[in-house]
Fold Sugar ABC transporter substrate-binding protein.
Amino acid sequence: MKWPRARWSCSPTARQIRRVPPARSRSTSISSSEPPAAACRSRLRRSSPVPRRDEPTALTRGQAEERLAAAVYGNPSCNQPSRHRVTGGPIPTLKGEKEMSLFVRKRSAGLVVVATASILVTALAGCSSSSTPSSTGSSGSIKIALVLKPLDNTYFGAMAQGAQAEATKDGVSLTVVAADNVTDDSGQAAKLNALATEGYDCYIVNPTSQTNLLTGLAPISAAGTPIVNLDLPIDTSAAKSAGVNITTYVGTNNETAGQAGGKAMMNLLSKGDGVALIGGLVGDPGSNARLKGFTDAVNGTLTITQTVAADFDKAKAKSAAATILLANPNIKGFFTPSGDMALGIQQAVEEAGKKGQVAVIGIDGTQDQLKDIVAGGEPAAIEQFPYLMGAQSVQACIAAHSGKTIPTSVETPVLTVTKDNAQAALDAFPAPPSDFVVPNPFQ
């Protein structure tokens, strides 16, 4: 292939130098007569133009000579010839005693010559024979999809934080999608379906119901891709019927958390005192398990006056508590399976003038709950570390992808928070306090 002669122009007043590149055909093939290093230069010629800079980059004469030669004629580290490939003479150099500014010039042919730091980075990269993505550790190529309940709920937001922190630490890729609300069964399922064909190595699912994601999980499971069930357990019999194999479950034992709430309430009240329960969604298995654990723990010591549902909604919980306080002014405590609902209930208690007289305990241990305990509001909370759940779900994916044998279920611990340890819990939030060490169960 015969190369046309390059044309150079120089403006001595502006001390600027530009190169008008020769016209080339669209073919990117390399002549067999070119030296082996031509492939390196060829990559530079085919690279996309670097975006135009608004301001010039000032270079000294020596820098300009060296870098322009590297950018236009090839990087010296690519074993480029020292002679001009067309004329056979020496490669042109820049003349002048002062510093010169090199600018981007776009020609009508659409070709751009860029003598800036950005193209120099490209030139250096062009010497590599392949592109390897950066990673941390041996799991850098793993792609994980995380499907959650709504992120505007602080509990599920903390899950996402923990998962992202662990993914960043381990050098894996994490994609997070979430339902619009806690009852968005079809919307969450559609978001999973959109990810199902994207080639993820592991799927973590925190479903809005025990069955809403099974249709989307069936082809994922059939392909042998690991599935980690987070927080709300998927119905095992329905999963079996749908052909879905759950690799492992990561979450709190909800009955255990409810029992911890019952023990904390008994430490605050006297035998025979009345307690009202304000649950989440009617029929929600997690809410029901927590209420059952609480009821079992206080049985024979405290009296359950009534149980109502508030749909995991703070405002609804506040309204329900206000109604109960009016109907039963002798009530001594409220228990709820949700941190956000606990805050609403506490507001109702304080507005009724009963702060310090009616105990409110909720499960979750959100940041606002911890702040409220520190400020003298709620007397206690059961912190269950959704942040830790998110982190452990990523650990499970990495272990499953590497072929390790992992447990079918991992129970994340809970911590009873009172005024004595609330500040330490708040300082560490959303992670567990420093003295609450939980080892990686998937190592």
About this structure: The mean pLDDT is 79.
